[in-house]
Design goal:
4-stranded mixed sheet; alpha/beta; 15 helices; 7-stranded mixed sheet; about 450 residues
Length: about 450
C-alpha cells in the first residue's frame, strides 16, 4: 500500500474531499479567477449546467487532438469528449480545412448554401431509418421537433420515456424538473419488456410517441437490449404510436447507428453532438411520409424555422466529418479502444475488489458505485456526491479530464498509449481511496 493510500485509510470522505479540493484550488488559481469574474455576469458563472463542478470548473484555454490545456497551463488528456460531441477531437485537419473554405466564401448567406443538400444526403445514406431530414441547432431542439411532429401526426398527446432518461435540458427524467416541456409524460423501466408492452397497450390511442435512447447516455451508459427495442417497435406499430430513437449520442456506436446495427426501423431519429463536425448542430428525420409534412410547398405544412438551421460552417464541418473522417474502419478502431478501456477499468475494480461497475457501448463508458449489479439507473444505490467529486478531482490531478458523473467518451485521436495512461491513473486513484469507497458503501474491508 502506498503512503497516500495509508493516509486516505485514516480519513473520512469529507476529510479526503476537503484535502483534494484544497490541492485543486492551489493548483488552479487562473481557473478560480476566471470563475469569479464569470459569476458577475452569469448565474453561477456558467451558461451550461453540466460543465459546472465544485469548487469551480477548469477554464479551458485550448485543445489539440485529444489534449486540453487549461487556464493555468496544465495539459490534460480529454476523456470528456465534449459529452460525445467531441468525437473528432479538437483539431481534425480535414474538418478545419472544410471550415476555412466555407468561411472564405461568407457566412449567414440567407439562402440555401452549397453544403446542406450534400450533408443531408450523407446523413440519409448513413442512417437507414432517415429517409428525409431537417436540421436544427441542438439535440434538445431535435427532440422537441420530433415529439411535436409525432403528436401532430397522430393527433394524440401523451409521450412515453424511460425512467432516468435525458433527452435535453427540457426533457429530463432523473428527478423533478420544473423546466420540462409540459407534455403528458409516462415512464417505463429500461429493458422491462413486459412492463413496456403493458404500458403501451394500456395507454392505447392516448399515446403519441415512445422516445428512447438505445443506450442511456446521461443516465449512466446503460444499454437497451435488442429484445427491448424490438418489443417497443412491435407494440408501437400495433397501436399506431410513433417510435422515436434519440441517437444524439448513440449514432456514433456503429456506421449506421444503433438502429442500423440492430436492424430496427423507428419512425423518427434525432441527431446532434458530433454529427455537426464539432459545430452547433441538431437534426431530426425519418419516414418520408411524416417528414413530408414539413414541405413548405404543400398545403397545411408544418412550419420549421431556425436562423442557423443551415449554418454554413456547420454544414461544411458536418459533411467533411461524415464523408471524409468517420469511416467504418475508423469507428471500428475507436470502438475497439472503448472495449479495451472498459475491460481495463473492470480489471482494476476486480483487482481492488471494489463495489463498482462499468457500463457502456462502443466508445462511451461510465463507472458507478454499486454493491450489486445494476441493470438500469434506478437500481443504483444512493451515493454521496462527494465520492464522485473526490474521484473526479484526483483524476484531474493526474492529468485525466473526465465528467464528474463518471462518463468517459473517447475521441478519434485517443491512442492506445492514452488508454494505458488512463487505466494506470484510474487504478491508482481507486487504490488510494479503496478504504473510503468501501466505508462509504458499507462494504467490509
Amino acid at each position: 500500500m502506498t503512503m497516500a493510500a495509508i493516509d486516505q485509510a485514516n480519513m473520512t470522505l469529507d476529510d479526503a474531499l476537503a484535502a483534494a479540493e484544497a490541492r485543486y484550488v492551489e493548483a488552479n488559481p487562473a481557473s478560480a479567477a476566471a470563475f469569479r469574474e464569470a459569476q458577475a455576469v452569469m448565474p453561477g458563472g456558467n451558461t451550461r449546467s453540466v460543465l459546472h463542478f465544485s469548487p469551480f470548473p477548469l477554464g479551458i484555454r485550448e485543445g489539440e487532438g485529444a489534449w486540453l490545456t487549461d487556464a493555468d497551463g496544465h495539459r490534460l488528456l480529454d476523456f470528456v469528449g465534449e459529452f460525445s460531441a467531441g468525437l473528432y477531437g479538437h483539431s481534425e485537419p480535414r474538418i478545419r480545412r472544410a471550415i476555412d473554405e466555407a468561411l472564405d466564401h461568407g457566412t449567414v448567406l440567407g439562402g440555401p448554401n452549397r453544403y446542406e443538400a450534400a450533408f443531408a444526403r450523407a446523413i440519409c445514406d448513413r442512417f437507414p431509418a432517415i429517409e428525409r431530414v431537417r436540421f436544427c441547432n441542438s439535440g434538445t431542439e431535435a427532440n422537441l421537433y420530433a415529439l411535436s411532429a409525432a403528436r401532430a401526426f397522430t393527433g394524440r398527446d401523451d409521450v412515453m420515456v424511460l425512467s432516468g432518461a435525458y433527452h435535453g435540458g427540457t426533457f429530463t427524467f432523473s428527478g423533478p424538473n420544473p423546466l420540462n416541456v409540459p407534455f403528458p409524460w409516462h415512464e417505463i423501466a429500461l429493458n422491462d419488456i413486459e412492463g413496456a408492452r403493458e404500458a403501451i397497450r394500456r395507454l392505447g390511442d392516448r399515446l403519441a410517441a415512445v422516445i428512447v435512447e438505445p443506450m442511456m447516455g446521461a443516465g449512466g451508459c446503460f444499454p437497451a437490449s435488442p429484445g427491448f427495442l424490438t418489443a417497443l417497435r412491435e407494440e408501437t406499430e400495433r397501436t399506431g404510436v410513433m417510435l422515436v430513437f434519440d441517437e444524439v449520442m448513440t449514432s456514433r456506436m456503429a456506421p449506421g447507428s444503433v438502429h442500423g446495427l440492430f436492424g430496427i426501423r423507428p419512425d423518427l431519429v434525432t441527431l446532434g453532438k458530433y454529427v455537426g463536425g464539432g459545430m452547433t448542430f441538431g437534426a431530426f428525420g425519418g419516414r418520408a411520409d411524416l417528414m413530408a409534412r414539413f414541405d413548405p410547398s404543400t398545403p397545411d405544412y408544418w412550419g420549421h424555422a431556425g436562423t442557423f438551421n443551415n449554418s454554413v460552417v456547420t454544414m461544411a464541418a458536418g459533411l467533411a466529418g461524415l464523408t471524409e473522417v468517420l469511416t467504418p474502419a475508423a469507428l471500428e478502431a475507436l470502438n475497439a479502444r472503448g472495449e479495451r478501456l472498459r475491460d481495463g477499468m473492470r480489471r482494476a475494480i476486480d483487482d481492488l475488489d471494489l463495489p463498482m461497475q462499468v457500463n457502456g457501448m462502443g466508445s462511451m463508458t461510465a463507472f458507478h458505485f454499486a454493491t450489486r449489479a445494476a441493470e438500469r439507473p434506478e437500481d443504483l444505490p444512493a451515493v454521496s456526491p462527494g465520492l464522485r467529486a473526490l474521484i473526479h478531482l484526483e483524476l484531474i490531478a493526474r492529468g485525466l479530464y473526465t465528467a464528474r458523473r463518471g462518463l468517459v467518451a473517447l475521441s478519434l485521436p485517443v491512442t492506445d498509449a492514452d488508454i494505458d495512461r488512463f487505466l494506470a491513473g484510474f487504478h491508482a486513484v481507486l487504490e488510494e481511496n479503496t478504504t473510503i469507497i468501501r466505508r462509504h458503501l458499507d462494504v467490509p474491508a
